[in-house]
Amino acid sequence: MDTEVARARALDAAEELFYGRGIQSVGMDDIRGTSGVSLKRLYQLFPAKEQLVEAYLQRRDERWRQRLAEYVDRHTDPVERLLAVFEWLRESCAEPGFRGCAWINSYGELGATSPRVLAQVRAHKQAFKAYLAGLVGDAGLPAPLGDQLFLLAEGAMVTAGMEASPAPADQARRAAELLLAAHRWRETDRETADPGRAAGCGDAGVRRR
Amino acid sequence: MDTEVARARALDAAEELFYGRGIQSVGMDDIRGTSGVSLKRLYQLFPAKEQLVEAYLQRRDERWRQRLAEYVDRHTDPVERLLAVFEWLRESCAEPGFRGCAWINSYGELGATSPRVLAQVRAHKQAFKAYLAGLVGDAGLPAPLGDQLFLLAEGAMVTAGMEASPAPADQARRAAELLLAAHRWRETDRETADPGRAAGCGDAGVRRR
DNA sequence: CGACCGAGAGAACCGGCGTTCTCTACGGTA
DNA sequence: TACCGTAGAGAACGCCGGTTCTCTCGGTCG
């Protein structure tokens, strides 16, 4: 068996088992059983379990972001591209075996004890946040919206996993639409009716009833 | 040592260690060392580690929701009570040793293998969501806002843990204000200018540019 | 054809951990 | 004082899992 094939099978098994059961609940022998790659080969490819975990998270990150980008690229309108993120999320959450965000789960389990895992988690979240920020910028919307949409997406993935339902992704999408509209209204308000308040980007415009 | 005291010390140690390091990374001997409660006593109080975990999550849930309610009860205005949730979240996230949401972390680690843990996690999230729904109802705001604020809060806790910063709680608070305003405007629009669209609660009012 | 290299299967090693057991000491009681 | 139940300290037990080693076998090259 080719080295590349063995590596791919090992990572396939790692993804299936680590994501489905949690990392510490899966032994290297389980990886061997599922992948068909012998222990000897496994340890040639990955000198320790931690590095298999790292490689699993990294490959999943690449694929995850690529699939997201492909889905988003089916749209050209900048606002539709933003909302497409939540549609894609909804599809992801509805897949069988969905169990929340792989990186958040890994963080809860190993974030405190494995610096390599922690680095992978942070890198993934940072990349996702940067991607959202790019979409927000392309739509000519203010940067804080990117962070807010990021929080909605995180909450949706976590909650969809725990409730075993894609409904949170729909709720997040509706919230995203409202936030979009709110930011746009605020921008136009600022330009036309009330330019003096442009500096304070806080809650001044919201509190009044 | 009194039984109640031993139980409390065991749970104190469990909370400190399980939350700080993850559950599977902490052995019963660590609990003993930190709590000063002998192994024999520990197993009299909790027949197995899983039940200590369960009790830890349950007691933390009670305290967590009580502290939240106390913070919220310092306000009387219904809208301020809603926003107080995010202020309290911000304070929680800023505490030293904050490492995200204990229940989300536990879900990632044991949700797939321990039904008792899974039940605790779901119960806690359901209770928090119900509490938010109550606040939203008290403010006379539409129910979907409760779910949306819930997602923001979840995202904020998770992200604050990973980034080791309370900033996400601030971002969530601003998003909450915008969502509140959006829902209110939509309500007034519906009553005054455009009652015919009241039935469709979807995105019709947002898409138009 | 024979020596060698690499790979796979599985045992072996070693430490860790959940759980139980033993031993000792102590405090209360007749 | 003698007895007894209890609690704590720590060892012991069994199992599991990460990692390494051994043995065997098939293919390759001189």
Summarize the helices and strands and which ones pair or pack:
2 copies of one chain form a homodimer.
Chain A: H1 3-21, H2 28-35, H3 39-45, H4 49-72, H5 78-94, H6 102-110, H7 115-138, H8 144-163, H9 167-192, H10 204-207
Helix pairs in contact in A: 1-2, 1-4, 4-7, 5-7, 5-9, 6-7, 7-8, 8-9
The structure holds a DNA duplex (30 and 30 nucleotides).
Would you kindly provide a written description of the structure presented here, covering whatever features stand out?
2 copies of one chain form a homodimer. Chain A has 209 residues and is an all-alpha fold. Chain A is built from 10 helices and no strands. Chain A is elongated and about 65 Å long. Chain A has helices at 3-21, 28-35, 39-45, 49-72, 78-94, 102-110, 115-138, 144-163, 167-192, 204-207. Residues 193-209 of chain A have low confidence and may be disordered. Chain A has 2 domains: 1-47, Arc Repressor Mutant, subunit A (Orthogonal Bundle), CATH 1.10.10; 57-196, Tetracycline Repressor, domain 2 (Orthogonal Bundle). At the A-B interface, helix 6, helix 7, helix 8, helix 9 and helix 10 of A face helix 6, helix 7, helix 8, helix 9 and helix 10 of B. The first copy, chain A, binds a DNA duplex (30 and 30 nucleotides) through helix 3.
